[in-house]
Amino acid sequence: MKSLLSVCMIIFMSCASAPSHQSYAIKEKTELLVSESQGGADKAGFRIIKDEKDFRSTIRGSFGLAGLATESYIKYPPFPQDKKVVLYNLGSFRSGSHTISEIKSISVNNKILYVEVPAGEPSGGMEIQVISNPWFIFTVPADYQFTSVELKYSK
What distances in angstroms separate CA 132 from CA 21, 87, 106, one per listed residue? Predict the structure, then answer.
């Protein structure tokens, strides 16, 4: 009985840990580096982050820490050298969670970068009204040419 249970666990673990080919292909194209629910701009928009100094100051500034000399407690993700790094501000919201948890796919069409993200789940009942300015930083291939960014929400 123990051996049967062990075999079942091994099979389950091998299936659960094997990534699908589609997510691997998307992972090669884009990576979500940082996603926060506060600290973004009031209006939706994007900007290309040019270098590591700009990258670090963007993250540090979003937490209201721009003037601090010590920032040892902030864990910065590594700055990718071979991709474009994009900061996207979602704008201002009065309630709900609008933090981006994953990027499903990206594509460019007519100089518009389309970023597919999971749709937020509406919560039932009354919500506390809290203004949030979510933002996220992600990467795209260096050869992508675009002049605007649009989010596509999907289930």
Answer: 35, 17, 25
